[in-house]
Amino acid sequence: MGENSKLIYTADDEANIREAIKAFLENDGYRVRAFATGDELLEEFKINPCDLVILDVMMPGTDGFTVCVELRKISTVPIIMLTARDSDLDYATGLSLGSDDYFTKPFSPMSLVMRVESIFRRIEFDTQEVKNLKEASSQSTLSFGDLELNPGTRFSLLKGKPIDLTPNEFKLLCYMIENRHKAFSSDELLEAIWGYTGEVETRAAHDTIRRLRKKLDGSNVIIDTIWGFGFRLKVI
Predict the structure, then answer these.
(1) Which ranges of 13-156 would DSSP assign to H, the alpha helix?
(2) DSSP string covering 133-166, please?
(3) 175-198 pLDDT, tens digit each
(4) Do residue 118 and residue 163 come from a single domain?
(5) What is the pTM of this model?
């Protein structure tokens, strides 16, 4: 396969895992640099930023969560977290700190490649969407209950006060408000927000909704569960 212009950094202290990730991504045409620690990746990123980061959570030195926080201070680069523990806390922590998705070890390298491809497709779509928003009125605001979101400025208010939302949380809320009169399946949300097809297995939608529910505590807007189908946004 031909050379891809996208540059990916991955950090994992297990040599066999980082080399497998590097090999599969390079086989798909990406340029990849593999690091044994998150500190090494972070230092290189400050000098030469990449297009996507894949971070192991548990590494010698600075852990993946902390590296994620440091990257988010300087960049909106897509971040995928890798964890050896099938823990809800790990998932929620990674997503709340600003990662785009996560993988639980052991995982299929081909599945990781599929998610990487989906993320880059989503970025291309989002870039065009941002251009369209800038061409529209910068004052355009989405209102629902006591929530106000401005897609153009990415500013969000709850009861008139700023609410801190990750990019995916913001986009998910905007999508649900824009389509407030319908219910959403997990597959629809994954395709609309993450760019994933049904063949990509992930709990990203469920975990992001769980984080949003906590952040909307005290709001008259709730994300209601429709058992056997998905979710619905409503005012109580």
Answers:
(1) 15-27, 38-47, 64-74, 88-96, 109-135
(2) HHHS-TT--EEETTEEEETTTTEEEETTEE----
(3) 999 998 899 998 888 888 887 766
(4) no
(5) 0.60
